[in-house]
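Researcher: Go.
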Amino acid sequence: MFHPGKYYHLYNHANGFENIFKTDDNYRFFLQKYASYLNPIADTYNIIILLAYRIVK
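Model: Structure:
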């Protein structure tokens, strides 16, 4: 349960060394869902998405 006025550190990790985003479309899908669901209810101070062995343009 989240509480107003508190800070939370949210993170996700893939299994082993697998990429979370297998295609550029997966990455875009994540950002669209983030914008739709989390951004309206929470202030984001920083977002870092580390892509192993891959640069998304």
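Model: The chain has one domain: 1-57.
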